[in-house]
Amino acid sequence: MDTKTYQRKKIVIVLAGMIFLLVVLLARMWYIMVNRSQHYKERADDLHERERVIKAERGIIYDRNGVALATNKSVCTISVIHNQITDPERVIQVLAETLEMEVQKVRKRVEKVSSIEKVRSNVPKETGDLIRSYKLDGVMVDEDYSRYYPFDALAAKTIGFTGGENQGIIGLEVMYDDYLQGDEGRILTVTDVRGVEVENSAETRVEPIMGESLYLSLDYNIQSYVTQVAEKILKQKQAKSVSVILMNPQNGELYAMVNVPEFNLNEPFVLNMSGEAAVNTQDLLNQMWRNGCINDTYEPGSTFKIITATAALEKKVVALNDTFSCPGFRIVADRRIRCHKAGGHGSETFTQGFMNSCNPVFMDVGARVGIEGLYEYFEKLGLFEKTGIDLPGEAASIMHKIENVGEVELATISFGQSFQITPLQLLRAVSAVINGGNLVTPHFGMYTVNKEGDKQTVFEYPVKEGAISQETSETMKELLGLVVSEGTGKNGQVEGYFVGGKTATSQKLPRGSGKYIASFIGFSPVENPQIIGIVLIDEPTGTYYGGTIAAPVMSEIYQMVLPYLFP
Ligand SMILES: [Zn+2]
User: Residue 197 pLDDT > 80, yes or no?
Assistant: First the structure.
């Protein structure tokens, strides 16, 4: 083979190779252009699209008559888009002045190279409008909402408040967050590589959807009035706190839940109390936000005799005219346990013992029922479980294990000591006693509506029937009526209405600290109870007896509430 032929062959081979490579390359290009173009197009769009969130308006919280308790006010969010700013110094100066921010802080935002940078949220609408009027390139003013509570401190610990992202922090605002929040919207804008909005390219808007509004069983008028009465007694008695719950005992609808001192829902991080030293601020805030009606437990004392009497009647171990004797104390095991009447009540029937709130009578009755019998009715009356109220952080009761209950514990449990429950647990248990044995679920949430006002979700709450017999319920209503008409609860009377109830003076632990909780639980009308309430005065100064200081508070409340609800 001569060199020429050899050269020619070599060229052919090289050419063939080149053609082959070219075909592969073209095929690859064709594949990319046809098959992968969508993928690359999407990536390109990604790079040139800017998204701004439009917050959804949070649902309103209304009382049972449509009074708005939690609303929204229009505010603005101010942001800057680095690449669109034409006069950075002017932007920095205007924003620092109008927003009352440090120049350095604004500069940091303005000079940061990013797609969009938030400078400040929750800016008053007027300030937002002012900033808009400067027509500064690269400054965005977006409409936004912030929560507003028209009545400041009213029912603060119950309603609760929201955080910076419009999410519930405490109270009903947390419990109903999923309904109230709504869905965020978005604004999409197309920009070129430098982040400058492409002219004439339409914005894509996905509109936000307002959250559902919530209707409560709470009654604004009742809540306001009860708050006033509670604040008055708080001041008079220089007490630590005063709590009141009002409920419909037939269905568990709560009309009012007051815990004074309350705090301002529009300034929930401002402490309203003089804190003890060496406690950090978060602890003080948590303390300020606590809802004593459900978050705290206490020894109920004599109001609990309602439960012991109910168990005894159910177990048929006592009749109303059984006689007892009270020398002013009872020796149990090796302990001398006193009656509140030092000289003793002498000879008395069970009915009289109940009206006198005599401890020795209840120690005897408790012994007849026995701990198994008592605990059987604690269980039936919901005292071993949480009430299931639609508020977060409900406390559980603290009870002795049945095997740890000796004679002394049995005696003290019988008149309401040596265990702890929440005020709401007691209110619910007594409701079942007076309503014929239905264990209701205390609640505020009634139903939600959408923006157009159409009902969305109607809440239903469990009722456990048959906790006690109708007969025992009737007897207990009579006994509780007698306590108010002739017994220790006389100060709970209301002219023109038949009120039943029971007083208590609980010692706070440690015993002997000289601190008390004075309370009264009362309902009306006795024959067919439509409202039940509990008043607790925590650490009153001076006179601390429930019958002397708490019963009159309930009487004052009922003087307004009974004619209002049942004209
Ligand atoms: Zn006695």
Answer: no
String of DSSP letters for 404-463: G--HHHHHHHHTT-SSBB-HHHHHHHHHHHHTTS-B---B-EEEEE-TT--EEEE-----
Helix (H, G, I), strand (E, B) or coil at 146: strand
Given a cut of 90, whether residue 266 has pLDDT beyond it is yes
Q: What is the mean pLDDT of residues 62-83?
A: 94
CB atoms within 10 A of CB 482: 17
What is the three-state SS of 269-330? CCCCCCCCCCCCHHHHHHHHHCCHHHHCCECCHHHHHHHHHHHHHHCCCCCCCCEEEECCEE
Helices (H), 184-219: none
- Count: domains in the chain: 2
- Give the model confidence (pLDDT) of 354-369 as tens digits: 999 999 999 999 999 9
Q: Ligand 1 centre from 500 Cα, in Å?
A: 21
Cα 327 to ligand 1 centre (Å): 7
Domain membership of residue 371 (yes or no) is yes
Ligand 1 centroid–CA 144 distance in Å is 64
Q: What is the pLDDT of residue 5?
A: 65
The answer to whether residue 237 scores a pLDDT higher than 80 is: yes
Query: Catalytic residue among 302, 414, 418, 473, which?
Result: 302
State which of 216, 232, 264 marks the end of a domain: 216
Q: Say whether both 386 and 424 belong to one domain.
A: yes
Q: Quote the pLDDT of residue 352.
A: 97
Helix, strand, coil percentages in the chain from 3-state DSSP, rounded to 5: 40, 25, 35
Cα 375 to middle of ligand 1, angstroms: 24
Report how far ligand 1's centroid is from the alpha carbon of 351 (Å).
Answer: 13
Q: Which of 488, 471, 286 is nearest to 393 (CA)?
A: 286
Considering all CA atoms of the chain, what is the largest pairwise distance in Å, rounded to the nearest integer?
A: 143
302 annotated active-site: yes
CATH of the domain at 486: 3.40.710.10
pLDDT of residue 42: 54
pLDDT of amino acid 37: 60
* Average pLDDT value for residue range 265-280: 73
Q: What is the pLDDT of residues 388-441, one digit of tens each?
A: 999 999 999 999 999 999 999 999 999 999 999 999 999 999 999 999 999 999
Check residue 277 and give its pLDDT: 53
DSSP, collapsed to helix, strand or coil, labels residue 79 as strand
Same domain (yes/no): 63, 89: yes
pLDDT tier, 39 (very low <50, low <70, confident <90, very high otherwise): low
Tell how far the Cα of 344 is from the centroid of ligand 1, in angstroms.
5
